[in-house]
Amino acid sequence: MNSIIDRPCWNCTRLIDMACALGGGEGVIVFQRRRKSRDDRLRFGANQVKQRDVNTRQATAQLIDELSLGVALIPFDARVIMELQNFIYASGGQRNLPRPQHLVWSKLSYVLGWAHPAQTGFDIAIELALQKAFFDHMWTIIPLAEMVATIGDNMPPDGSRFQSLAAQLNTGNAQHADELRSYQQTYSIEIRGVIDLFADEAADIVREIAELAIRKPLPREGDEWAAYVREWKAFLNSAFKKEEVKDALRTLHINTCLHAAVRWNKGRQLEANDFYDFHHAAAALAYCDMFLTERPLKAMLTAKNIALDKRYSCEVAAGIPDILDMLRR
Length: 329
Hints:
Blueprint: E1 3-5, H1 10-21, H2 26-37, H3 54-68, E2 71-73, H4 76-91, E3 105-107, H5 124-140, H6 144-151, H7 159-175, H8 183-214, H9 222-239, H10 243-248, H11 250-264, H12 272-287, E4 290-293, H13 295-302, H14 308-311, E5 315-318, H15 320-328
Parallel strand pairs: 1-4, 4-5
Antiparallel strand pairs: 2-3
Helix pairs in contact: 1-2, 2-15, 3-6, 4-8, 8-9, 8-11, 11-12
C-alpha cells in the first residue's frame, strides 16, 4: 500500500504511533498491524523543508525516515515529463512500455536531487569508481535526517516565491472572474495555461527521439522550433478532451482540477500553501492508495464534479477518525 501524509496530518501519525507504543485501542492496533504485516509496505512522504525551526525539521525528517522505509516519489516536474514520455511513446505505437507506477519511485536520499563527485583531479577510471561508490553510499545508507542535519539553516524555506505567485494569480483571476460560466469551462482555461508551460517539454521529447533516429542534432530555437511547439500546444489541448489522456497525464490533470476548483469558487483566494498541498495531492491521487490530509483539501478532491479519489482509486481521509475507519476496511 502506497500512502502520502500531507503535513497537517503529521500529528495524526505521531498520535497513532504513540498509541501503538502504549497499547492503544482497537483502531490503533489495526494501523500497527497493517504497517508491520503488508508485504509491499507503506510509503509516506511530505514536504518538510518549509519548516522554519531546525529542530522541528529534524524531528520531521526522522519521522519520514521511519515511515517511508527509504522510498520517495520523484519530484512534480520529473513525474510530468515521465508521463509525457510514456504518452508520446504510446501514441507513436510503442508497446510493452514500463508502467508509470513503476517509474515514479526513488530512494529517499535523492529526494533533494542527484549529486556525485566531479572534477576530482583523478583520472577517468578512478573518478568513475568514486562516483559509483558515492551513488551506492547515498542509495543504501544516508537517511533524510542526516541530510537535513548537514544542510541545517543553509536551505531556508522558499515561501515568498509562492506568496508572490498566489497574489499574481488572484489578481488575474479577479479580473477575469465574470468570464467564467462553469467549472468545465474554468478547467479548459486552466489546462491551456498548463499546456503553455509544458508544450516545449513534449516537443523536446519528440526532438530527442528524432535525433536518435537520424543520428544528428536538431535545433531547439528559431522560427521552426517555435512553430513546432505551437503544434504541440494545439495537439495537447485537443488531447486533453479525451478521458484516457487525463489518465495518462494524470499529474497535470489533478493539479489543473484543483486550480480550476479554486478559480471557479470565486470567494476563494489562492494561498501560498495551496501550491504545496496541490503537489502533495497530485502525487498521492496519481500513484498512491491513500492520502491523509486536511478537511478542506479532502472536500475539494472528493467533490462530485471532480471526484479525483474515485477516478484514481485513492482513498482520502482527514483526521484520526477518518484514518482509523479507512484502515479498518
